[in-house]
Structure prediction request, 140 residues.
Amino acid sequence: MKNDERVNADVKVAKSFGYTIFWFGIFAVLLYRWFVLNQTLMDTLDFFLVWLIASIAQFFALAIKGIPITYPVSMNKKEHLNFVVLVPLLTGILSAIIVFAKIGMDYRRILGGFTVSFLGTLFLFFLYKFILYLWEKRNM
Prediction:
């Protein structure tokens, strides 16, 4: 069998589809084990580390290639700024709700969950933008 561009493209699509199912599947298993089975992070550390490493590898691979964080959706500067602010904000709110559901009305922990999630996601977005900036500077 000859190497054909169409075959190579189909193989890449199939591998990408498999990776996506794998990545979301591990995340679903983590959520199920944490919230339904009430297991701790230490109980699920093996699944969590595989999922985290896959996420970080994908994150940096896209950034190093110069692919915008909102790909394949093209956004103007205002929409992109809204995305970069709203997604961390929603991540923080979701984290605060999860902390509330797990431990109740402990304001310090709820605020801590919100703050860590919001700032962590915001930091990752700015790190992504910085890597893209370096890529554009090097390749243009």
